[in-house]
Amino acid sequence: MITIYTVDSFTRELFKGNPAGVCTSFQDVSSSTNLDIFFQKIATEMNISETAFITKAKNSPSNSRYFLQWFTPTNEVDLCGHATLATAHILFENILQNSPVDELVFETKRVGELKVKKCDNQGRLQLDFPMGDPQTIELDNKLLEEIKSKLNITQNIHDIQLCKRTKKLLIQLSSIDDTIKPQQNLTEIKFPETILSFIRGIILTSNSTTTTYDFISRYFAPWNGILEDPVTGSAHTVLAVYWSRLLNKTLLFGYQKSARGGDVECEFDEKNQRVFLRGYAVTVMQGHFQIQQDTLHF
């Protein structure tokens, strides 16, 4: 049978943070188009923001090196932080618990190699991701009003930037609160053709009003089948760079103010163009799909 886990990422509490599915049953199988189709079916059945799958690494496969993919209920995505954290958590806790391995390398289709290492013996992990590079962009007033209407934004807009690599539009507001409510038709926003293909999610962010955090955020990605994502690692590769430039500091603490909420420690390594994301994860459930793996042919 095919084993599946659900893990809450960027939290130490059950039912907080961002839930991810993790499937390790194909770690000795090479990836393929037919396997991708099957993975998408599993992710659709799981019906949570992302489900991660590891397969045999293409380069020097070992118990510390795998090929990693992420699927939402509707499509495969280029990068997913919380599901990467969840995958590393499961490997360290359930498969490599008696191994001296303390760093994992994940090969990916589009973002190169990702590394995850143990920070301590308390379960805290560090993700080593490529940096986002948001740049200032100007949007006309009509488009801004449409965005504000579909997200119920009443706050002042201070800044707008676009990260083309991660396909995320970042909007800095005067504050972030629960009055912001995304509509299902968010994908109908009429972005100009010049940037339309570079937008798969909208980040809303503001300064924190407490000393615990440097910034607050929320993230909306109905273009990937996720109206609001609880805690988003890939968005923090953009947020870390944005707020590092604004606040002139490299170590930052972010809070994603979704209904579940989650903490993300961020460190911007500008020289190497990387962002380190640190956090915890907790296993919620382990189960099985009633499918005999040896009956599948890929």
UniProtKB/TrEMBL annotation:
Keywords: Isomerase. GO terms for cellular component: cytoplasm. It comes from the Eukaryota. The active site is at 50. It holds the Pfam family PhzC-PhzF. InterPro entries: Phenazine_PhzF-like. The keyword Protein transport does not apply. GO terms for molecular function: isomerase activity. Belongs to the PhzF family. This is Phenazine biosynthesis-like domain-containing protein. It comes from Rotaria magnacalcarata. The lineage of its organism: Eukaryota, Metazoa, Spiralia, Gnathifera, Rotifera.
